[in-house]
Amino acid sequence: MKHISILVPYDAVLAAIFDPRYMFSAVNQFLTDEGKEPAFDIQLVGLAPQVQLNNNAFTVNTDNLCSAVEKTDLVIIPALSGDLRTSLERNKEMVPWIIKQYANGAEVASLCLGAFLLAKTGLLNGQECSTHWLFANDFREMFPEVTLTDGSIITEADGLYSSGGASSYWNVLLHLIEKYTGREMAIRASKFFAIEIDRKSQSPFIMFNGQKKHEDEPIKKAQEFIEENLAGKISVEDLATRFAIGRRHFIRRFKKATNNTPAEYIQRVKIEAAKKHLESTCKNINEVMYDVGYTDVKTFRTVFKKITGLSPIDYKHRYNRDAAGK
Fold this sequence. Notes:
The protein has helices at 15-33, 84-90, 94-103, 115-120, 136-142, 169-181, 183-192, 217-228, 236-242, 247-258, 262-280, 285-291, 297-308, 312-319, 321-324, and strands at residues 2-7, 40-46, 50-53, 58-61, 64-65, 74-77, 107-110, 128-129, 147-148, 154-157, 160-163.
């Protein structure tokens, strides 16, 4: 039987504690119904017997204290909420415990913004990780030693798992169910919880909002120029000349400030605008393509799918109510 320790940090998202407990408990029930032994011993583990969440709206009673758990097989780190730096400080006593459990052979899985607490341990240094796309820039700023994969639903390396944003964590839970109990049980769980199994990307949900929390004013002006001139053809050379910065130096400064190269930034701004057109207007794909400065259909479709994971027409059918009804 696998021992599952679901952490109850201060400032945790309540659903991200309840949902894994519910899923692992449901699988135990499925097994019991088949006349088999349960697969999981599930405990809520915290720094205190009771943890107040959501401005004291909810109280979670833990089953055990971290200090009392000598060994476990899987540590689940739920999503955090509020100011993340404050949350990490409030939960700093969990960090050495997580490191100790990993050193003793436990696997560790973070759900959504739980990746910040996992990254705080240093275990992810040099590894890939996923988290909620909205907090990608904050994560990169706080943990530059970790490679963040924006669009991924699941990352896995050396017994460390992470999930994308919000409900994406259901997929990492299914992944763990399959690893511990097999594909058949994972499929059964996916059907019970109405979750699309094997979903790999959160790219369709990402809303690009250029990183502007920096002090490089010429680069901010370059970002604004890009955003205000979507229909035009913008080159890196033109931008460097416009803001009187050498091309190579401009690229380095832009990348440092925004976490994107100028070319990547131009693409992402244009595709974000295209997404909004597809979501809310009756324009066809070619009209949208020209509105955001593309003239070649193949190039537009290739870039759009690379960034969103969907073709323009599939994206329109998914998010445009009028198109979906046709």
